[in-house]
Amino acid sequence: MGIALIWSIITILFRWIFSKRRGAISYDSSDQTALYIRMLGDVRVRSQVGFEPERRGSHPYLGVDFRTLHSRAESAGTIPARRIRRLFSFQRHLLSSRLLRGAPHLNPLHILDEDYCGQAKCMLEKVGSWNFDIFLFDRLTNGNSLVFLTFNLLNQYGLIELFQLDMVKLRRFLVLVQEDYHNQNPYHNAVHAADVTQAMHCYLREPKLAQSLTSFDILLGLLAAATHDLDHPGVNQPFLIKTNHYLAALYRNTSVLENHHWRSAVGLLRETELFSNLPAEDSLSIERQLGSLILATDISRQNEYLSRFRTHLDENDLCLGNASHRHFVLQMALKCADICNPCRPWELSKQWSEKVTEEFFHQGDIEKKYKLEISPLCDSEANTIASVQIGFMTYVVEPLFAEWARFSDTRLSQTMLGHLGLNKASWSAMEPEASGSSEEGESEPGRATDEPSSRVLSQGSQES
């Protein structure tokens, strides 16, 4: 049987399956292939259909499902605690859905009354604080921090009412977004997405943005933050390229992960029909601009965005009354939110540093196992958490946040730079040799290093 015929049969099969599951959504656009990739990678669909996604490429590593990449073996006879929490989450979802059906004017906060314990609700009263502990909030919400935090922010900004979002569709969309993050990943998981969303909220409240952004801008910013790493495999782009992964081929080795995160988000928007009440051109505009924001998190383009931002600030020509300028500022805000961990208080920053380095080192172990070239910063024998973090702060974080402070010179910006300096000093104290080398030529971090080393960019490409 020819390949073309097989593909036609698969296409017909998928259209029938997803017409049942996805409300007869049409995928006749140019994004069709990318959206099918998302469907093929959807563990919920695979379990129903009964087959694994097609594995393209010749490297033996591709026989491993990314969703089990960072899994730890469960003891025999036990039910994973997270599975139990998910069951409870689903029961709460059904309850809130039943309450909302037939009660169109129900206050959205009633959902919170069904789902939140008192402590989580109290935390949300301070969701705009830079000291917000997303790890504690995730525990208080039984691992559902992304769903509850994003829902709360959308309601707080009045976006649910303004855009007349169907409550059941919105809740389903957020649950599916959270489920499509690989929570076995030490770093790139739903908690990271919730953390980035909370940071984005902090930036949206900064005076320059609060006075200029439209409700449409705010909606895009929050959605982009929540979905910016959707379905992240826990390895970086160079790994996908050198193992001939089908996503690398699909996106021609360019912004592979970011393109996949964007297409995955579009797939969920269409699956849930979240914006079906809007005119078709508005819905497509949301999808396109969402992609523009998510693609900006590609660290390989860091210098491009930073140079453009710096030029605008030098020439003082940013006009937030201009829609394209507002969108660019949103891109920079998302880039800051994505890598803001070194600017958090030490107790939070240290946890994130340990998690991202664990993910790096696990990739390095896989590369050793399959005799691949070990990616920069992924060799646990040649790097430490301290050395990785010092390099990342020096070459990537400091230049970006120095320029952001020029744009938005507020108490928050100074707080972030203060934490960044203290955290870097703390890591340097643990790594005397790194401390000595990193202090050379560091007198003006915002401008001294326009070209980060390839080693640090490799880390950034995995962190973003």
Strand and helix map with partners:
Elements: H1 3-21, H2 32-40, H3 43-49, H4 81-100, H5 109-115, H6 118-124, H7 134-140, H8 145-156, H9 159-162, H10 167-179, H11 190-204, H12 207-210, H13 215-227, H14 237-242, H15 246-250, H16 256-272, H17 280-295, H18 302-315, H19 323-338, H20 346-369, H21 385-407, H22 411-430, H23 432-438, H24 445-448, H25 454-463
Helix pairs in contact: 2-16, 4-10, 8-10, 8-11, 8-13, 10-16, 11-13, 11-19, 13-17, 13-19, 16-17, 17-19, 18-21, 21-22, 21-25, 22-23
Short description:
The protein has 464 residues and is mainly alpha-helical.
Helix count equals 25
Helix amount, in percent?
Answer: 55-70%
Low-pLDDT runs: 18-30, 42-58, 74-79, 96-115, 434-450
- Secondary structure category: mainly alpha
Mean of residue pLDDT values:
81
Q: Radius of gyration, Cα only, in angstroms? A: 22 Å
Give the oligomer, counting copies of the same chain as homo and different chains as hetero: single chain
Distance between the termini: 42 Å
Q: What overall geometry do the principal axes of the alpha carbons give?
A: globular
Strand count, sense and barrel status of the largest sheet are: none
Note the run of SSEs as H and E: HHHHHHHHHHHHHHHHHHHHHHHHH
Strand content: under 5%
Task: Give me the count of strands.
Answer: 0
